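--- STAGE predict ---
source: upstream dedup step, 1 unique chain passed
mode: sequence only
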Amino acid sequence: MKRILALTLALVLLLCGCGGQAAEQPATTPTAVETEPATEPATEATTAPTTEPAPVYYNPLNGQILDEPFTGRIFANTVSNLAENIPHVGVTQADMLIECFVNQQNVVRCLALFTDIESVEAIGATRSTRPMFNDIAQHYDLILSHAGGSSQALRDAADRGIDNFNIDQWAVASTGASYRDTEYNRSYENTLFGIGSGIKAYAQSQGMEMTLERDYGFTFTEDGTPAEGEDAQEISVTLVYDRAKKETIMRYDAEADRYVFNQYGQEMTDQITGEKEMFTNVLVMHAQITTNGIYHVADFLAGGTGYFANGGKIIPITWTCDGDDQPFRFFHEDGTPLDLGMGNTYIAICTPESPVTWTGAVPAETSAETTAETVAETTAG
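--- STAGE serialize ---
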C-alpha cells in the first residue's frame, strides 16, 4: 500500500517538476485567404436614344427656309431696262435680277428669276430674248419666257436646248400668259407684261418638265455682311462695252438692311405697287464679253473677278463656272466659298473695264465738312 502511495506521489512530483507551466506552443499567424473581389452582375451598357435633327430646306435662289425641298423649275423673264421703258413691273418679287448689255446700240436688259412665278401678277415690260440670256438659262436649267426674238437668238436657244417660249399675245393668248397695257407712255413694243400664273400654265401645256433637282451653286447665311468688307453705303457700277456706258447705283438703306436700286437719275419703284426695288445682296461679275454679230456673249467658262456687297459693306471676289450646264460659283479672294445673305440678289454682268466705285459712311461724331468720305475705285483686269 505504502508502495503504491509512494509511486503515486513520485508521479505527481514528476509531473509538477516537468510541467509546472504549460508548454509553449509555436506561434502561429493567420494566413491570408485570397478571395475574388465582389462584383455586381454584368449588365449591358445603355445609351439614350438619339434623334436625327429635322432636315432644313432652303430656297435655292434666296436662302429662305422652306417647309419641304424645292424641286420645282425656276422661271426667268426678260425685262427691258432702257430709260424710256421704266419703271419696271414685278421685279420686286424676283429672287434674282441680272442686268447686262445684250446687244449693240446700248441695249441693256434685265433677266428676272423667280422660284414662285405663279404669285407674280405682272412682269415687264417683257422684251425679246438674247444669246446672253439663253446662255444664263442653260447654266441654271431655267424656263425662259420672252417676247420672241430674232432668228439668230431663237436658233441659239434651240441649239442650247433651252425650255423657252414667246408670251406675246398672238402666240399664247389662250393661256393668259401676258397682256398689253397702253395706258402708260411707252412705245407699243414696250407694253407687253407677263402674267406669272399664265406663264407657268403655258409651260405645263407644252409638256415642259415642272420638277428638277439640281445644284444651283448658291450658299446662304443669315447675316451675309462681309466682316472684312469696306464701308459701302453707295455703290456705283458702270457697265461699259466699247463706247456704250450705263450706270447703276445701289444705295444702302440701313433700316431695311437692303440696297435700293437707282438708275437714270431716279429710284426704282414698281409701276403698279409703288414698292421700292431693293436687294439684300449686290454681286458684280467681271466677264470677258465679245459680240457674235450684234449680240453680246460672255465667256462664262473663263470665270473672273468681281465684287460682293451686303449689309453696307463690300469686298472683292472671284467666280468660276465648270461647264455650259453648270452654275456660277462665288468665292472670297482667299478661295473660300462666298455665302450670300438670305434675301434677293442683284447681279451685274459686265466687262473688266467696267468700274465699280463705292462711298463709305461718314462717322457720326465727325461732321461732313471736316471729314472726307471714303471713296474706293478699281478696274479689275
